[in-house]
Each structure stands twice: as structure tokens, then as C-alpha cells.
TrEMBL record:
This is Diaminopimelate epimerase. Substrate binds at residues 13, 46, 66, 76-77, 152, 182, 200-201, 210-211. It comes from Lichenicola cladoniae. Its main location: cytoplasm. GO terms for molecular function: diaminopimelate epimerase activity.
Amino acid sequence: MQVAFNKMHGAGNDFIVLDERAGSLGLTPAMIARLADRHTGIGCDQLVLIAAPDHGSDDVRVRFFNPDGSESGACGNATRCVASLLAGQGAGPDFRIRTDGGLLAARVLEDGLIEVDMGRPGLDWRDIPLAREADTLHLPLLHDPAGCSMGNPHATFFDHPADPAAVGPLLEAAPLFAERANIGFARILSRERISLRVWERGTGLTLACGSGACAAVVNAVRRGVTERRVAVEMEGGVLGIEWTGDGRILMTGPAVISFTGLVELDDYR
Ligand SMILES: N[C@H](CCC[C@H](N)C(=O)O)C(=O)O
């Protein structure tokens, strides 16, 4: 079965976007892992499925999968990409996107950037989830990270001395995290600007992580080291993050189609 796909990226965080609105493609975790392989597949940080809306609703349902085949409740950069794709197909400019992490509102702005309301962060240890009760503002790990959920689990380190590529795999799988975690390495540049690298659960180091940027700002604000509106510099680009007065996280950034293609899915079964 030949299937059309879009290859997209948001600030260098790249995605295979497949459309299941006309029917299931029958993907398995093993097939997702093969499609995500950068040498023998299409290659991506996440595979994104646009699914048929639930019965009786107009919302689009979107699911996110990592290259190891695991599923995530949230992916900020891919959510912007889906909104941009739907806008290119004539919908919008306002969208409601249903994810496992919550119903998200997305909007194409006049300058072409996409804004997504990522909802409220989960600040309780059960939200992340942690394996045992702990203070999420000071997780019981070396170098004092803070944790929160953005629909997926995050921990943010400030000024961690080690190389993220070296410590990322160990921290992602630390027993404290009941479902593993995305690990952010932040540096405070000013009260309105931080730099961030993210070791993503099920993926590894990426050029940008939207939900990781949101989590880093939430944790920086909780620690009192930034304002509520912060530019987050990552290797692939800058995202604007704001934790609004009513507790919601707004994320603004780019979404780009790199190319469109056809894939013979049976070759990946
Ligand atoms: N790149 C994504 C996050 C993917 C999350 C995934 N790695 C997980 O939670 O398992 C983002 O822009 O938010």
C-alpha cells in the first residue's frame, strides 16, 4: 500500500506526518521504528498520526510516536506542524487538536508562526508521573532538577555540568520517573531568555523540543529565575513561551514542510 506523507519540522525537530482520517494504516511499534530510522527509513524525531475525530466531534485527533515505537501524550513542535498542515489544506486559522495530553487550541498568526495553547502544566508528582512522592520543584536527583508534566513527563536541570548526550540516557531512565522522562538542560541567559537542550524520551537529543521548552519555562518561573514570558533558544531555533496569568502555557514558533512523498508501507511491515 503506497501512502502519501509529509516530512515536516518545527525549529529542526522533525516529523513524518501520516494521515489516518480515511482509515487506519495498521502501523505497529516495530513499523514506526523502521520508518523513523534515518539510514534505512524516512527518518524523524517523531512519527505523527492525524486520526479521524471522535464520533460527533469536529476536532482532529493527533497521536505522537517516538523512534523506539513508544507513544507520547504531547509534542509541542508537531502540534504546530499539524496546525500548519491543516491550514495549508484550507482549514483554520483556528484549530482544536485532541491529543492524549489534552485538547489544545492552535492558531496561525499573521506572520505565519503558529501559536499553541499547551494547557496547564501538571505540578504534582503524580502528574509527571514519579514513581514515589517527591517535591517536583526540587526532584531528588543530583544537580537539583525541577519536574512537571506538559501532557508528557519533563525534568529540567539548570546549569548541569555534564554533556547531555552522556547523561541523557541514564537520566531518561532514572527509577524516579515511572514512565521515563524528557530531560532538559537549561541555562539562564537573562530574565527573558534561556538556552535549552533536550534529551527526549524514546528519541535522544533533538534540535528543539516544544513541550521541553514549555516545561523549562514553567520550572524557571517556579524557581523565580525568569519572567513568565521567555524566549527559548535551542539548536534549531527559538520558541516564544508564555505562562499566562490564568495558568496556561502559550507556545509560538515555526512549522515547515520539508518535502512530501510516497512510502510503500508494506516494505516496513
Ligand atoms: N519533540 C516533542 C516532544 C516529544 C516527546 C517525546 N519524546 C516523549 O514525551 O516521549 C515536542 O516538541 O514537544
